[in-house]
Amino acid sequence: MTDAQETAADRTLRTTGGAPPDDGGSSEAGAPIPLLEPQDGIPAVIADESSLAAVIAAFAAGSGPVAVDAERASGYRYGQRAYLVQLRREGAGTALIDPVACPDLSGLGEALSGVEWVLHAATQDLPCLREIDMVPTRIFDTELAGRLAGFPRVGLGAMVEGVLGYVLEKGHSAVDWSTRPLPEPWLRYAALDVELLVDLRDALEKELDRQGKLEWARQEFDAIAAAPPAEPRKDPWRRTSGMHKVRRRRQMAVVREMWEARDRIAQRRDVSPGKVLSDAAIVEAALALPATAHALAALNGFGHRMGRRQLEQWQATVDRAKALPDSALPAHGQPVTGPPPPKAWADKDPAAAARLSAARAGVSALAEQLTMPQENLITPDTVRRLCWEPPTTADAESISAALAGYGARAWQVELVTPVLVGALSAVAKAKGAQAP
Predict the structure, then answer these.
(1) pLDDT of residue 26
(2) Which residues fall within 8 angstroms of residue 134, CB to CB, at 6 or more apart?
(3) SS3 401
(4) Cα distances (angstroms) measured from residue 208 to each of 148, 169, 204, 214, 215
(5) pLDDT band with cut points at 50, 70 and 90 for residue 163
(6) pLDDT tens across 404-413, in order?
């Protein structure tokens, strides 16, 4: 049993039969126990204002942290809106809320203001929760806590099994949550997702404290809660799968025209863009530059199921791109605001390449010593920026200031600064020794 399991072993946890096992979640044989039913049964879905008011009152009167999760319909619907919100809090039980029927959850958000929200992979759910006016002021992210604590697998199911000794049924994670009414097995799955989230949070908090990492985690959680909404991505069409095959600017214009047309159709129909036209089909059309709808129909992705009118509409997007003047064609790459790709450093700036190599090695060694992923110790982008344009004097004060300027948290600055000072100083010293 891991240290984290030991910290959870003194909690009164539930089995499928309702009685706590002696070892906090494992059977006599040591095998994880399937968690098949929520402790209080599957709650009715909240889909009207009066029921929502009762839930708000219950959760406002509850105690301790509140477990929060949201289900989206990625791959089925346009965008990333929430189609079900699950909550659980001591004294209030579990609630399943339909945010389509109850689109304004600001009252619930206000009732939970100041309460710690426990989420798993918070950055995935916070955007869709923000859309329905649920914005936490304090969070505990169990996935991020697992990363900082050094767990090799940090999915919710793996964490609940590894830390608490229970197996969650995960078969409905990718279903179409916009379906109405939601089937009972899906609702059971949704309720179970928040059933043990606070238990997991408590065990991970103890484990982080044991490792001396609890304050680090708190700084990370505060940064996530305080982060503003992400800016819209510039030129999202450039992320079309298979884009690396598209070399010519005219072909890139076809991708842009077809991607934007597809996006408008998907938004109007409220379906996933991939259900309108696949990325592979867009790239096929861009590479072929078909002259007619008949030629377009011969390409993969534009088969016999597509009607003539649709084919003509897609051919029109190709024709628009082909008719653009050269000045209106997209550039080969987006303007670079940071350092160039590291693979180009050796040619562009050998000294910077040497700094990056030394810095990466130092950060990697420290991350291994602390048993956490390198990217959680310090972001790779921060290391690249520092090595490409280092301070004039590579001392602790200037490097600490540079790291803080790039958004590193205080705990990261404290741990990484000595490593980077040593790496940059060693490279500078070696360069000086080689000078004539």
Answers:
(1) 45
(2) 68, 85, 105, 106, 108, 109, 112
(3) helix
(4) 8, 27, 6, 5, 9
(5) very high
(6) 999 999 999 9
8 A C-beta contact, residue 58 and residue 92: yes
CA distance 35 to 44: 20
Quick check: helix, strand or coil at residue 235?
A: coil
Q: Which of 22-26, 69-73, 364-368 has the lowest mean pLDDT?
A: 22-26
| Weakest mean pLDDT among 23-27, 84-88, 306-310 | 23-27
**DSSP string of 347-391, one letter each residue:** HH-HHHHHHHHHHHHHHHHHHHHHTS-HHHHS-HHHHHHHHHS--
Do 145 and 13 meet the contact criterion of CB atoms below 8 Å apart? no
The residue among 84, 72, 77, 91 whose CA lies nearest residue 46 is 84
Q: What is the sign, positive or negative, of the torsion defined by CA atoms of 250, 330, 259, 334?
A: positive
Q: How many CB atoms are located within 10 Å of the residue 34 CB?
A: 14
pLDDT surpasses 90 at 159: yes
Rounded Cα distance, 305 and 144, in Å = 45
First to last CA, the chain: 60
Q: Is 39 exposed, middle or buried (0-12, 13-18, 19+ CB in 10 A)?
A: middle
pTM: 0.89
